[in-house]
Structure formats: structure tokens, C-alpha cells
Amino acid sequence: MPASVDRIMADLRREVHKYALVNEPNAQPEGEAGSVAHLRRVQWVSSHLPLGWPVMSGNPFQRGIIYTKKVVRRLLRWYINPIVDQQNQFNKATTDLIAEHQTRLKAMQERFADLEDELEDARRTIESLQQQIATLGDRKLP
Q1: DSSP string computed for 97-136
Q2: pTM confidence score
Q3: Among 51, 57, 77, 117, whose Cα sits 20 to 30 Å from the Cα of 136?
Q4: Contact 99/32 with Cβ under 8 angstroms?
């Protein structure tokens, strides 16, 4: 019995840790902003959240429907949860890939700006050398 309790506790800790990391506002790596930060906040899908959330309906008939749906989802958990977990894994992989591409794009933009500066310096050097050549060409030979 203790081994199964330990296994259950380990599973619970892993699930809590997984969902807490996704739902924490500061869970995204530093430097991410805008759309990638938003993707990190919404990448996790709950298999039970939409039913009666955030406010349960006051109508008893609607409440009955909501509770019936919750019971059906609990009974079909063995079928639904693997699909939701696969979707969550896909969402995480996609978000990580987008974040990686955003980082690479930023690095390329910085490199492009550096190359533009180098090109402008080279143009100024060429212009200066052309002026020096013109000045030397205008001199009379002795």
C-alpha cells in the first residue's frame, strides 16, 4: 500500500508542477515578450475547466446539465485525458519552437544592423580614398 501511495503522490506532484509552471504569470523565460509570452500563458488546455466556470448557472435545469457533463467527463477521463495531454505537449512544443525562432530572428536582426553599420563605414572609407586619389591626381609632377 505505501508504494502505491508514494506513486500517487509523485504523480500528483508532477501534475501540479506541470500545470503550475504553465499557469504562473512569470513562468516564461526572461526576455520573452508580446505574443510568445501570451502563448506561454494559454498553451495549457484543461479537460474540465469550461464546464460551469467561472460562475455556475442559477437555473437548476442548466446546473443539472452541467453536472451531468462533468460526470460524463469523469467517466470518460481515461479517453479524454490522453488526448488533452497530447494537445498540451503539442502546444508546448509549438510555443517553444516559436520562442526559438523569435530568438533567432532577433539575433539575425541585430547581425543585419551590424552589417549595415559595417557597410556604411566601408562606403565612407571608399569615398575618402577616392577623394585622396583625386587630390593626388590633381597634383603636378615635378
Answers
A1: HHHHHHHHHHHHHHHHHHHHHHHHHHHHHHHHHHHHHHHH
A2: 0.55
A3: 117
A4: yes
**From CA 27, how far away is CA 42, in angstroms rounded?**
12
Check: CB of residue 44 under 8 Å from CB of residue 91: yes
Residue 10, judged by CB atoms within 10 A of its CB (0-12, 13-18, 19+), counts as exposed
**Are residues 26 and 40 in contact, defined by beta-carbon separation less than 8 angstroms?**
no
Pick the closest to residue 40 from 81, 100, 116 (CA basis): 100
| 46 closest CA partner among 75, 72, 80 | 80
CA distance 80 to 66: 17
Dist. CA 130–CA 88, nearest whole Å = 62
**Interatomic CA distance for residues 40 and 21, integer angstroms:** 10
Question: What pLDDT digit, counting tens, does each position of 98-123 carry?
Answer: 999 999 999 999 999 999 999 999 99
Whose CA is closest to 32, among 131, 132, 101?
101
Closest CA to 51 of 72, 77, 70: 70
Residues 28-76: pLDDT tens digits? 455 566 778 888 887 777 766 665 565 667 788 888 888 888 888 889 9
